[in-house]
Specification:
Layout (H helix, E strand, L loop, with lengths): L1 E3 L17 E8 L7 E7 L2 H12 L9 E4 L2 E7 L5 E7 L3 E8 L5 H18 L14 H20 L5
Parallel strand pairs: 1-6, 3-7
Antiparallel strand pairs: 2-3, 4-7, 5-6
Helix pairs in contact: 2-3
Length: 164
Amino acid sequence: MKGHGEKSLPRHFASHPLGADILAEADIFLTKRSRLAAKLIIFKTVRGLSRFWRGALGHSLGKRCYGAVNPLRAEVWTFHKDGRETRRVESDPRYFCIIGLTARNLTMEVITHEATHAAFAYVECCPRRFWTHPSEMPQERFCYPAGKVARAINSFVHEKGLYR
């Protein structure tokens, strides 16, 4: 059973207590009709990304982690008194993932790597959204969203003048 969390994430994270290192942020919609977006947050430093990810999202990152994606999905198990177990997936009603990048590491390698993680989050969240005909290669259902996310990140970074 799929459900949405009761509260959604805020639209702007710069005002978050751990958001002092946020340089820019944007919502990435994969189609014009999309209701779900990826939240892109670009941090000034790797330390800022790591601190935010650990404190706000509850996940630790490695020291050389220049980008990260959180799919914003949680599996919740309920154990009933009669011995039954039920499982449901909770997700944010506004975002299918959060993408965190760092200003000094805005390279195509990092952007496409994180865009691919975002594509997996999208396909898990919206499994019935087909980008291609079912007879095409199975990888295509991930590759199209990955390309759309990478293109949107590249456009946003260029628009904000963040490339060095």
